[in-house]
């Protein structure tokens, strides 16, 4: 069976995956770009073309960041990661990601306002569904052609998949900042360490990389 | 001026410094002994005689744990760290710590039910005061003879001193467990990274040691 994976999901020391006040100009709300500061200089994030041009780093942070795409056949994301608005999507709104999104696979977008799929350049097609985590995962598996599924975020989506015990591999990055408010990743996950082997390593950039691997695999 | 320090204060990945349901038999509530599992084998904790006899470890965990007593002239602790009960203390109740507590300095206990000081063996005297963090720190400085002050916990006490910006050095340990409920350390501390240089290192025991050093020192 294909595996369900989370990569590069970053939280503050106090456990927030995004700040308060998310909007078009500030996708992470008052957190600004601080949560992903560690990632922007990496080869992997540079290659996405979202944060300027240049030669990316190839150190510890890149070693983790670079795993995100390998073997992935589809992503599942929350509505907030697709678009900062609420309610039905207008026909002309194509999300954050521009004409050539960095996913290059089918992407299942969880929303209470389904609409027809949106096919963009580079192999990314967004599928908008009102579905439980289990249902979304079934659809993603159909679309993924036997490859793995990435749960792309935000915090609520990752948390719901963890609570439903649907995730096999989880890479969390802890950034040394305190956001104080926003969306918490860790709520309602008491005892999760019983299901996962948890390892950690620090990076010279100041973040901590945590890997959670399902026990018994 | 003497410095205000926190050592060996341990939180779960989801930020709880103690579990729910603290009582005499379970000082950390449903967390049991899991938060301090990293500390028990160290020389420093072995020497306190609280967790059995034996030769303690002298590795990375001990390197951090061992800093707790050096240069300390007084501790400030919350009522919960002294005793698990609520309301006035009865005359025969002498706290968790036995006849020869491991502090060997004056200890200021924050409580809404002051009582006369309690002098025990080995140089530990408990002073029970109903005081703000600033007032408690003034008293502790008078008692400390020019040495540093340790803020001993629990989570609420450390958090209140951080919120009042009274702490110079903070050593926090993150244990790879998810408690789900209990007392949070990090609430209301947005932007604390502006005041501290934060460093981290992982230990083979599985915990992460974080040091917070006041900027500009």
TrEMBL record, chains A, B:
Pfam families in the record: RibD_C
Gene Ontology biological-process entries: riboflavin biosynthetic process
Entries under SUPFAM superfamilies matching the protein: Dihydrofolate reductase-like
Superkingdom of origin organism: Bacteria
InterPro entries found in the cross-reference section: DHFR-like_dom_sf, RibDG_C, Riboflavin_Biosynth_HTPR
Gene Ontology MF annotations: 5-amino-6-(5-phosphoribosylamino)uracil reductase activity
Domain named Bacterial bifunctional deaminase-reductase C-terminal: residues: 8-189
UniProt name for this protein: Dihydrofolate reductase
